[in-house]
Amino acid sequence: KPRVLSGIQPTADSFHLGNYLGAVRQWVALQDTHDAFYFLADLHAITVEHDPKLLRKRTRTSAAQLLALGLDPARTTLFVQSQVPEHAELGWVMQCLTGFGEAGRMTQFKDKSAKQEVVSVGLFTYPILQAADILLYRPQYVPVGEDQRQHLELTRDLAQRFNSRFGKTFTPPEAYILKDTAKIYDLQEPGAKMSKSASSPNGIIELLDDPKVSAKKIRSAVTDTGREVVFDQENKPGVSNLLGIFSALTDRTIDDLQTAYDGKGYGDLKKDLGEVVAEFVTPVRDRVKSYLDDPAELDKILRAGAERAREVASATLSRVYDKTGFLA
Ligand code: ATP
Ligand code: MG
């Protein structure tokens, strides 16, 4: 089976719909046909200021959400990044292969650092650690949202650079990005992506929010001038975003929705989308609650995942250390 790998940061109490539609939904779909590795990127979560207690809580809540959304630890290796020390170790080797200017071209760093009061070196080098995260497992595909495309390119470049300096070791992995859901936008700022750490609370639809709160956020989403419900990314980014989410959650096509809302207004679309979201999140929230009722069991699943992950990761790291010239 071809291998896939991806990760998500435990940087918030809840995932948002962008995380689900852009990434996690594909993770769930791929676990049947692929050898799947998915991890909670807690090393990445400390690149911005964090509270240790909250991080521990969020790591468990994130794991519970992944399970509630359909990841099956029997078929998938689900683990926590910091429990596999090879990530940090390969990360160092990758840092030494990356040019300073090359790292400086990462647009996500520019966006994120502009919003932080204190900018850590870790935030700057995070895409390089991410390259290590990926290459350790030698996957063919990396299912992510559009915002990760540039980081995936860096990963491919570093894989090729390592190969050309030290001999063939890695196959550059490919980004697996589904066009329709690659970028879900902030409800209040439809030019920016919905983000756990950068969006305002009203800009994101959180899976664990009370559906009434989500419905209210959708009702107050920034829409566009005019009143026709038509998909037009350029001139009507707000309405287009709502249509995209609606379509993704119901499997109704955009065309079908445009026809259904012909002659109706934004208000009807928003009201109905609130109901669609409620229907989706309600069972997910219940399942998350029941996983969180038993944190010891959750920790056990993650420990077992880390053990399986380490088998693959340590084999790759040994090869890399050997080729780099470290003593065995
Ligand atoms: P943070 O703001 O802390 O970076 P995030 O919302 O960007 O959080 P990540 O944990 O960085 O979430 O990313 C997890 C996955 O979700 C990645 O594959 C990323 O590409 C995807 N993703 C994040 N935001 C969106 C979005 N708005 N639309 C589609 N996919 C997204
Ligand atoms: Mg992110």
Automatic annotation (TrEMBL):
Short motif 'KMSKS' region, span: 193-197
Residues bound to L-tryptophan: 133
Gene3D superfamilies named among the record's database cross-references: HUPs (3.40.50.620), Tyrosyl-Transfer RNA Synthetase (1.10.240.10)
Binding of ATP, residues: 9-11, 18-19, 145-147, 184, 193-197
UniProtKB keywords: Aminoacyl-tRNA synthetase, ATP-binding, Cytoplasm, Ligase, Nucleotide-binding, Protein biosynthesis
Stated name of the protein: Tryptophan--tRNA ligase
HAMAP family linked: Trp_tRNA_synth_B
Subunit composition and interactions: Homodimer.
EC code: 6.1.1.2
Keyword Transmembrane helix belongs to the record: no
Assigned protein family: Belongs to the class-I aminoacyl-tRNA synthetase family.
Pfam families, alphabetized: tRNA-synt_1b
Biological role: Catalyzes the attachment of tryptophan to tRNA(Trp).
UniProt keyword Transit peptide, yes or no: no
Subcellular location: Cytoplasm
SUPFAM superfamilies cross-referenced by the UniProt entry: Nucleotidylyl transferase (SSF52374)
Catalytic activity: tRNA(Trp) + L-tryptophan + ATP = L-tryptophyl-tRNA(Trp) + AMP + diphosphate + H(+)
Organism the protein comes from: Actinokineospora diospyrosa
Enzyme class, spelled out: ligase
